[in-house]
Design brief:
heterodimer, A: about 240 residues, mainly beta, 20-stranded parallel sheet, 1 helix, B: about 210 residues, Multidrug-efflux Transporter Regulator, Chain: A, Domain 2, 2 domains, three-stranded antiparallel sheet, 9 helices, about 45% helix, flat
Chain lengths: ~240, ~210
């Protein structure tokens, strides 16, 4: 049996089930678990039940009250997932909020990403703002700081945090931070990785193999096994080589 | 359960693995979440692991990694990825069950994965001197709770013994207990044998692989 498509362009509700395509451009509500090839929300939608889809695009406002599984999730509007999310690729240029944890292969943030628990992925790239309530774990963490981001812990192989380029224009980063000139920062409890480069980052503990502490950093303790470089405009209270 | 713990940095130092590998293996489910034990120390929060478990696991990952991809390793090592559709006809041929286990068999053929794990529990108990009738208790217990074999970590099965003395008659009772550590028994009970289900599940998985 071929599954059907459903489209809401005014206001309406549909029940869960298996669909090829679900399009909501007005205001819609989906009641029950959904399996779909494609889900597009350009209006306002509320999914009550688990959602499994190949592709989910939210350019309006999407709310998922339960677990979401997808190959790709693109948010340019506002998307809230109250449960856990398993999404192979997540691209958020809007506002993405996840109430549980997120498992992924690749995450790209250029808007805002908020994950209440852990975020586990192979690659994490951000040029936006993020807040991770638990552990951010990835092989590659590449961050260009814009605004203030936070994570309880970051762990992985390569961790590269760069301040936004604003401070290159005549104003030093640490001065910029002191005066609160629009420069992004990152606040983390603990960072662990093999290759770590940090800028404008405040952390209690940094542990790594090859560690570079750049301008604007305030680190409680650094433990390293191979090399450590500290920029003059950084503050490291305690250093230990193991 | 006062397990011997090892700090994360000591694990890295002793085994020579990198942070990248450790976090990757954790993401893949090769190192169970439950093994990451956070503790406050003089220098702040630190992560510890059950020493024997983590060191054995890293050794296994390393020795198997040569021939298997990480995803295949997950199938072999992660408890929640236990093979569902095993039908094994000769359990005694598997090392964790062996000749001791022969006394515990209850049918000719077609043992499922959970049943093999149950047999391995019984066989292990017998090897440490438990009588077959008591080992059977353990087998029945684990058999009846097959889901426990697939539930992530920290499950233990015990054989406990209790002596009752009343009006000159003394009775010894043996009972089976299954649950998450730390398990508490009353003071008059004695633990005769303890089986770490996770460990035994893994042994059965590896043995099945060798046969195949």
């Amino acid at each position: 049996m071929e599954s059907q498509s459903v489209s809401i362009s005014g206001s309406g509700r549909v029940s869960g089930g298996e669909y090829t395509q679900v399009r909501i451009s007005g205001s819609g509500r989906v009641e029950g678990d959904v399996i779909a090839q494609e889900i597009r929300v350009s209006g306002s939608a509320r999914f009550q039940g688990t959602v499994k889809a190949k592709e989910i695009t939210v350019s309006g406002s999407g709310k998922f009250t339960s677990r979401v599984e997808a190959d790709i999730l693109v948010t340019s509007g506002s998307c809230g997932i109250e449960g856990d999310a398993v999404v192979k690729e997540l691209r958020s240029s809007g506002a993405q909020r996840i109430g549980g944890s997120l498992r992924s292969h690749y995450v790209r943030v250029s808007g805002v990403l908020n994950v209440a628990c852990d975020l586990e992925t192979d690659g994490f790239t951000s040029s936006g703002r993020f807040e991770i309530g638990g552990l951010l774990s990835a092989d590659r963490v590449e961050v260009k700081l814009v605004g203030d981001s936070r994570a309880r812990e970051i762990g992985g192989e390569n961790i590269d945090i760069r301040a936004s380029s604003g401070f290159n224009f005549g104003i030093s980063l640490s001065r910029g931070l002191r005066f609160g000139v629009g420069i992004g920062t990152l606040t983390v409890g603990e960072i662990e990785g093999d290759h770590i480069h940090l800028e404008a980052t405040t952390a209690d503990v940094v542990r790594g193999k090859i560690v570079h502490i750049g301008p604007g950093c305030r680190i409680g303790r650094v433990e390293y096994t191979e090399s450590l470089e500290v920029h003059p405009e950084a503050e490291v209270r305690e250093k230990t080589k193991r | 359960m006062d397990e011997d713990l090892i700090a994360k940095k000591d694990v890295l130092e002793q085994t020579g693995i990198s942070y990248g590998q450790l976090y990757r293996w954790k993401r893949k489910g090769l190192i169970p979440e439950a093994w990451f034990i956070r503790k406050a120390t003089v220098t702040g929060q630190e992560t510890f692991f059950p020493r024997d478990k983590i060191l054995t696991r890293i050794e296994q990952i390393r020795s198997l990694k040569e021939e298997q991809s990480l995803d295949e390793l997950v199938q072999i090592l992660a408890p929640e990825a236990s093979p569902e559709c095993v039908q094994h006809d000769n359990p005694a041929a598997l090392a964790p069950i062996g000749a001791e286990g022969r006394k515990l068999l209850w049918k000719e053929r077609g043992y499922t994965f959970g049943e093999l794990v149950a047999l391995a529990c019984g066989a292990q108990a017998m090897r440490s001197g438990t009588r077959p009738t008591e080992a059977k208790l353990l087998v029945d217990l684990v058999r009846a709770e097959e889901a426990a074999v697939r539930s992530s970590t920290g499950m233990t099965a015990l054989l406990a013994e209790k002596a009752l003395d009343q009006e000159g008659i003394s009775v010894r009772l043996t009972l089976g207990v299954l649950g998450h550590e730390p398990l508490k028994l009353d003071r008059e009970s004695r633990i005769k044998h303890r089986v770490d289900l996770e460990q035994i599940t893994e042994q059965v998985k590896l043995a099945l692989r060798e046969v195949a």
